[in-house]
Amino acid sequence: MEQVRFGRSGLRTSRFCLGTMSIGSSAWKGWVLDEDKSVPILKKALDLGITFYDMADWYSNGVNEEVVGRTLLKQTARDGLVLASKVFYPMSDDANDQGLTRKHIFRSIDRSLRRIGTDYLDLYVIHAFDPNTEIEETMEALHDVVRSGKVRYLGASTMYAWQFANMNAIAKQNGWTQFINMQCQYSLLYREEEREMMPYCQDAGIAVTTFSPLARGYLTGVQQTARTAHDLYLSWFGDAIDVEISQRVHKVAQQRGVQPGQIAQSWVFHSGNVTVPLIGADSPEQVEAAVKALDIVLSDEERAYLEAPYRPRDMINDYNPIRRLRALAPEA
Length: 332
Hints:
The chain has helices at about 35-45, 65-75, 100-115, 135-145, 160-175, 195-205, 225-230, 240-255, 260-270, 285-290, 300-305; strands spanning about 5, 10-15, 15-20, 50-55, 80-85, 120-125, 150-155, 180-185, 205-210, 275-280. By secondary structure, it is an alpha/beta fold. Helix 6 (about 195-205) links the parallel strand 8 (about 180-185) and strand 9.
């Protein structure tokens, strides 16, 4: 598999990153796969040349990191992998076991390394912006984690562009380690990051990783799955505009003789806005189908047809309930 440069950093990663939120323990969320069903997915990703894996301490309350780390490190050498994990969300009822404080970051990185079974992470990502902690405290703590050798590079996820730019500016002013990566949601149903975040990252040489190209499965055309039955976040999608776009995805897929999900993924992969797309999977076959979607290159006419119905919506982050800014579908 092709290796790509990760922004302006010296890091190189596989063309795809496997997102692993669905790997860990079904006791955490009903649609998450237990270890026996997760291992074949991870092995297939390795077989296809994927070396970049995205985890989070919050996923399955730590079981995600245990399963992913244990499986990968049995199959291949640590130095051949790019391992990422995240910090922010509460890990217990302890008031200090959450957010981006120095205390929580230092505690969390040690626990993540122990669960994964490694002495360093290639990429440590803050899962969200913490309005209750001074940016200086967060950025200095992250810098110290890098200086300690426990982390090679820093990333961030799911926040406003002004928050991300401000954090990097404060780090630069103080000579601290800056973020080299922004991980954000991006699909035919959610394109708000095109307005500010992606142009900022392109100008600053920051690698963009994107997740949920299928809009949490909404664009696959599958009517009922474990994900649709248990994922509360699916309430983000489903208005008249989303329905129209989904129908157009199905039409293009039918014309090309491929899966609707592959059309949705191809649109993201070839958008020109993404350094490394995250792909998720509930089976080894889905990993393979996602990788094959890279070979599907949509025409300008097909892209325009898929994009035409889109209208602005609120940003998806911890501060907004998502809603369409214009609720009515456009005329066809």
